[in-house]
Specification:
This protein has six helices and six strands. By secondary structure, it is of the alpha+beta class. It has two domains: 95 residues, no CATH class; 115 residues, no CATH class. The chain has a six-stranded antiparallel beta sheet with strand order 1-2-3-4-5-6, with no helix packed on it. The radius of gyration is 27 Å and the shape is elongated.
Length: 248
């Protein structure tokens, strides 16, 4: 949903007896509310207006707000325009919102123990590729270890065993295997032995890690859960028909 900025208008009306008409004068404009999707927690809400500064010329406002859901602060610039030629009306609008919101729609099937770091890796990808890549490497290693039971002293060894698993599709094994080359593990051994370390990244490395995590989570969590639900639905149908359920 788009941010919505509303204002209160201070209007005075005068009657001009000489020309027998009523004159309406806009005396002042005051911010009333700002509704937006919080860049911190993603909830769309009416923000609390903690501080408002009017900028000249015209009715432009600097707004320091706080989210009623997560209590985090955000900054917005709002403007009231007396006339918008495109809309043929008076309008108020949000000019800027900081920090910039990035929608992160993680599949609900991903376990909570991975979601926090995963979401953060996506949110900071542009701000700090190094930190994003470090988080992604750590998530990747944790999934390989905890979901597939592969544990070694280095991520490279764990990747070797993972891509040899018989049920891993070729597109995923190739993508995971490429992490070592794209991340240049030979030049940055900490990426292999201490995956959570923040070190220099290669161009496109942070983005690639996120893409690989998307595919890995789809394989490890999303598709198995969808298959489980389909089997349950089919077994319920078979049961209603008096037939034996599918074998696991």
């Amino acid at each position: 949903m788009e941010p919505k900025f509303e204002v209160d208008l201070d209007i005075n009306q005068y009657f001009d007896g000489e020309i027998e008409q009523q004159i309406t004068v806009l005396e002042d404009v005051k911010p009333k509310s700002l509704s937006a999707e919080c860049p911190h927690c993603g909830v769309y809400a009416a923000m609390s207006l903690d501080s408002v500064v009017t900028r000249e010329p015209g009715w432009k406002f600097d707004l320091i707000c706080s989210c009623p859901n997560c209590r985090q602060s955000l900054f917005a610039q709002g403007e009231y325009s007396d006339y918008d030629p495109d809309e043929d009306s008076k309008v108020s609008r949000v000019l800027a919102l900081y920090p910039e919101f990035q929608p992160v729609n993680l599949p609900p099937e991903i376990p909570d123990k991975y979601r926090g770091d995963y979401r953060e890796a996506i949110l900071i990808k542009k701000i700090s590729p190094k930190a994003s890549a470090a988080l992604s490497r750590r998530i990747l290693q944790n999934i390989i270890r905890e979901e597939f039971g592969i544990k070694h002293r280095s991520l490279a060894q764990e990747i070797d065993d993972f891509i040899k698993l018989p049920n891993v599709p070729s597109y995923l094994s190739s993508a995971v295997d490429a992490i070592r080359n794209i991340g240049n593990f030979a030049a940055h051994p900490l990426k292999d032995s201490r995956t959570g370390e923040i070190v220099d990244v290669e161009p496109g490395e942070a983005e690639w890690l996120i893409e690989v995590l998307d595919s890995l989570c789809d394989f490890a969590f999303v598709q198995p859960e969808k298959l489980k639900k389909r089997k349950e639905a089919l077994n319920n149908k078979l049961q209603s028909m008096g037939k034996p359920p599918m074998k696991s």
